[in-house]
Amino acid sequence: MSKLRIHPLVRFPALTALVLAGFCTLCPTPSQARTIHLIETGSTLLYPLFNLWVPTYTSSHPGVQITTEATGSGTGIAQASADLVQLGASDAYLSPALQHLHPGLLNIPLAISSQMVNYNLPGLNNRPLHLSGPVLAAIYAGQIRYWNAPAIRALNPGLPLPHHLILPIHRSDGSGDTFIFTQYLSFSTPAWMKTTGYGTTVSWPSVRGEIGATGNPGMVQALATNPYAIAYIGVSYRSAILKDRLGQAWLKNRAGQFVFLTRSTVEAAVASRAPHTPPDQSISLVFAPGANAYPIINYEYTIVKKHQASRHMARAVREFLDWAISASGGNAPAFLNRVGFAPLPQLAILQSRRQIAEIH
Amino acid sequence: MSQAPGDPPPRPSSAWIRYRRIKSAIGWFLAGTALVALSVAMVQILLYVFLQGFHSLAPKLFVENTVGVGGGLKNAILGTALLSGSAVILSALIGVAAGLYLSEFGEGRLGTLTRFLSDVLVGVPSIVLGFVGYVTLTVWLRWRFSLAAGAITLAVLMLPYIVRSTELALRRVASGIRESAYALGCRDHQVVFKVLLKAAAPGIGTGILLALAISAGETAPLLYTAGWSNYSWSGHLIHEPVAYLTYVIWSFIGEPFHSAHALAYVAAFLITFMILLINLLARFLIASSPHSNR
Amino acid sequence: MWFRRLLALFALLVPLVLLAIAVFLVFYAWPAIHYNGLDFLWRDTWNIGNQYASPIQRHGETVMPGAQFGILFLVAGTLGSALIALLFAFPLGLGAALFLSEAVPHRFGHFVSFFVELLAGIPSVVFGLWGIVFLIPFLSHHVYPVLARLFHFIPFLTRPIGSGYGLLTSSLVLCLMIVPFITATLRDALRSQSTEMREAGISLGATRFEVATRILLPGQKTALAGATMLAFGRALGETMAVLMVSGNALNYLPHNVYSPISTMAAFIVAQLDSALADPTGMAVRSLAEIAVLLLVISLITNGIARLLIGMLKEHTL
Predict the structure, then answer these.
(1) Where are the domains of chain A?
(2) Which among B99-113, C40-54, C288-302 has the top mean pLDDT?
(3) What is the pLDDT of residues A6-28, one digit of tens each?
(4) Which CATH superfamily is A37-112+299-356 part of?
(5) Nearest CA-CA distance, residue A174 and chain C, Å
(6) Which of A11, A73, A110, B218 could pair with A90 in a Cys bridge, judged by C-beta atoms 3.0 to 4.6 Å apart?
């Protein structure tokens, strides 16, 4: 052995060395150790709002980074409870079984979302169509099959409804939209509650002509390409509905009035339900009483663990959430109007603040 | 019709010949149509992705991180490079060694089994690997969404490709070279490192490159292992999610915003372009190899 | 010898990794396998139960009331989409391979086949994107209405044409993704045949097409069958593209070719979210049971493909 030799195993793949070198140059030095990185995941309905919030918030809070991800409410809940993420996002409050399983989990409303019922009736899309929970339930159960069925005609005297098969469109993926729509059907129609019930995915009754669609974009697409179809679509997609010149129905509320989705009908519904909200804020806003109350609205929740990994983390979460629910911060019209959401009422803000204070 | 031996065979009638010619022409026409249909589809996809992506391409996309559904793609480009880069290192180290065993000493039962099971592993849907990675690495080992969880999952996915391509590349090396090396008194590892790997390097490199291309285009195994991050990687192997381009495509195309769609198109453009480039490079490598018999 | 052993250790890793995945999945899915029983494959309902009730005990497992897991609609969607994809891909792949290997000059054939094989390199998610933004609007506006009107007498091709997300769209996308496997394998196999065979055929007075289909092709039957099997396996396990264009049907069988469907692999991504909300964990374990089935399918398709290709050439692979 005259000279030191490098073992071939070390020398061997030149490519490895090359990639390793590239790998090392890519790694920035972990200098920003002080920066706190919050991760948000969950509801696809809340996701656009988070995306509007984050750039504004992080630019005024340089010590905080926030990653947003649209996965779905179930993932939001599961990953917040497993401490994989700090902020879960969910269209629905935690079920009792989940609360029992994860006692340290809070659900805190951040904003109010609503839902449209849309239709594609050639020639009638700009005429007001009145629908009620029981009629929608009968359509989705296959008991009302034609647009000119007596039950629909009774709600719309004078409207020239065609004798054409109704094509009910529903979400085929799990969704908070399905959750609140089926809650509307369930709360207004005992028979629907008994047979199908509500949930993020339900076993839809088999109906001739039914169409399953993925996501809200899929719902809009399906409605636009299928005359005589009907669908439930999140309010964030209202511009797409207008662009495709589709119809938007007036819905019968608990008081028996037909209401259209507007700022004031949403606020009326919130005002009638907010005083009954329990301290943990687990409540459904669907089918609220009140003459002017729009029937399909819901709280959009963030799911947060009371006990965070560190005090710094807890403080960052508290500060962000406090900002998000304040009328001058995240609940400002500049953010909410772009996604069609409504701000939290004063009472809910107080309750949310009390819950946020519990994070430590 | 009987025919005496020695007679010339009956001449086929000209009508019969014409019938067969027409049949052949129709056959070729159909086969050509199939090829044209495929090529049109291929060109359509590429053109569509390239035009849409090119339309939204801007320099700031390469220097800015994703902000919500806007901003740039720096985090995702770096993340894809990191995930695929570290996965290919892991996978190539194991895969080349395993491929060496298969081609040089793999006539026995272990060789047959490994060959068969690596083909099976190729056929396992990538989401199954992602699911297992999520439950074991992300949740059970508490690595959370991280580079380590994503890269290991990707490495498992690439492994069978590298094993089989390495084996094929080595088998193409003429056996005379091996024999002469052994005859000169070389030991196993000397034959492998000094002769075989050098001779088969282009082939092995091609295999690794193609595996890299496959991993860069994967989405399903990363969704629940690497997660997603709006920031560039800050140097933590675990506990920190990593961005990647395919996530942008899958997730942003469903959002109701134009900025989101623009990012999805650019991400699709970049990833397709990168993969085509790697494929071309791989072809070039194999074509320029002095030992290849292709 | 130490070096051989070291390499053997690395080679051993491949079977070990697969074994670990299989053992883990079966172990993890065991409560679901026990709860769902054999009916898993034949039942048509996937219902994670009433999430707003209290968990109950059934068949010795803790589940939410009403929880029932059956994947018949997934089996139908998976097999249906893969078979229709193969129905398109087989003639396309066969025709293209014949044309490339026998009808055009080598250099040109080489160039074009490289081009076609690049299709296999395009990521699944890019196919999905193209499907959503181009193919689905195109098909649902221009092709499906015509198709439905033209074939209104055939039950599976009549209206409603739905949203464009569905069985036929998935099959078309899958077809493009698997066709390169068939074309590449067959073209290589045809090219590897000796020129003498072709010359002999021509000298007997056969047309070039007859040489290709009657003389060259029959010898490659097994290679073709093996490649088709592998392509079929690919189609069965494809995830992202199908997820994005299939419509993700839940709990119903397709009524026609435009109906939304879901496949086993896509379903795992689509439903993992809802399943994670199940506090008993049974929904996630039932998804793991689907993953176990996918492993078994891969084992079977590869086993068959290997037998077919193995019959052909014992020692080359």
Answers:
(1) 37-112+299-356, 115-276
(2) C288-302
(3) 444 444 444 444 444 444 444 44
(4) Periplasmic binding protein-like II (3.40.190.10)
(5) 6
(6) A73
- Record the tokens describing residue C87, joined without a space: 């129905």
- Classify the complex by whether its ipTM is higher than 0.85, answering yes or no: yes
**Residue partners of C190: CB distance under 8 A and separation at least 6:** C97, C98, C101, C102, C212, C216, C217, C220
Residue B162 Cα distances to B211, C5, C105, angstroms: 7, 20, 32
**DSSP reduced 3-state for C293:** helix
Spatial CA neighbour of C198 closest among C123, C98, C317: C98
Helix (H) or strand (E) holding A89: strand A87-90
Q: Cα–Cα distance between C223 and A125 in angstroms, integer?
A: 57
pLDDT at residue B95, rounded to an integer? 92
Distance CA A199, CA B252 (A): 26
Cβ separation A55–B138 shorter than 8 A: no
> Is 90 exceeded by the pLDDT of residue C175?
yes
Query: What is the arithmetic mean of pLDDT over A86-103?
Result: 86
CATH class of the domain at A115-276: alpha beta
In B76-105, the residues whose Cβ lies within 8 Å of chain A are 78, 81-82, 85-86, 88-89, 92-93, 96
pLDDT value of position A248: 94
Nearest of C250, C239, C234, C244 to residue C297 by alpha carbon: C234
What's the token pair of residue B137? 């690495």
SS in 3 state form for C39-80? HHHCCCCEECCCCCCCCEEECCEEECCCCEECCHHHHHHHHH
Same fold, A37-112+299-356 and A115-276: yes
Token couple for C137: 């609007």
- B67 touches A at CB < 8 Å: yes
